[in-house]
Structures are given as C-alpha cells and as structure tokens.
Amino acid sequence: MKAIGLDVGSKTIGVAVSDAFGWTAQGLTTIYWNEAEIESADEELNNLIDANDVSQIVVGLPKNMDGSIGERAEASKRYAEYVEEKYQLPVVMWDERLTTMAAERVLLEADMSRKKRKKVIDKMAATMILQGYLDSKGGVI
C-alpha cells in the first residue's frame, strides 16, 4: 500500500509516490490543470492512483508563516475534500510551509537552469511534502 503526495497549485499539481513500505517518497510527475475546473486533473490523477496501488493521499497545506490559513490553503483544502470524495481514499493535509522554497534551494545547489527548475519544482515540492509525512509516521502508513 502506497501513499501519493500532491503539491496543489492553481495551474499545476506536483505528484510524488511512496514506496510500498512507506519509507521514501519519489517524485512522479507534474499534472497541468485548470483550478477553476476542479475535475480537469481527474484522468491523469486516477491513472497514477491505479498504476501505483495508492491507499492514501497526502495533500500539502500551504499555511501562512504565522500558521493561519490563507487563500491558497483554502484552495488546497477544497481540492483535498474533492479527491477524498472522488477516489474514496483517506486524505491527510500536511503542512507544507517552505517546501517550495526548500525544493528551489536544492535545485539551485544542483546548478539546475531556471528552465529545468520550472519543470521539476512542483514534483520536488510534492516529494518533500510526502517525505515529511512519511518521516512523521516512521514508515507506517
């Protein structure tokens, strides 16, 4: 049984998946979608859930630095509620403060060009979200 991690943005959803033991997260892909049409990522996400035998979904919750919930966090919560209903899988919201900035730093340190960073940043952020969740569970999902 695996978990899938989602970094939900207004135009893209970064996707990562855990190994079967719940120890490590690996970046999978970035889904391009239209947030105004909440079902626009359904086909691609459904294929990833099925192909990876997913039993749980972890959605990043982009809280403000003071811990409050802003517009992006509300949008992520709406999407989490939608996927929980759509796929009938348990969904966990995971605090993702600073994950995108941390992913950017890692890619900068790897001397990756801006163009290449743009292609993988969401997938990397999803990996960091999922890995944070897995680490908190000690390999038990």
From TrEMBL:
Enzyme Commission number(s): 3.1.-.-
Intracellular or extracellular location(s): Cytoplasm
Assigned keywords, A-Z: Cytoplasm, Hydrolase, Nuclease, Ribosome biogenesis
Chief localisation class: cytoplasm
UniProt xrefs under InterPro entries: RNaseH-like_sf (IPR012337), YqgF (IPR005227), YqgF/RNaseH-like_dom (IPR006641), YqgF/RNaseH-like_dom_sf (IPR037027)
Protein family: Belongs to the YqgF HJR family.
UniProt xrefs under NCBIfam families: RNAse_H_YqgF
Protein name as annotated: Putative pre-16S rRNA nuclease
Organism: Oceanobacillus locisalsi
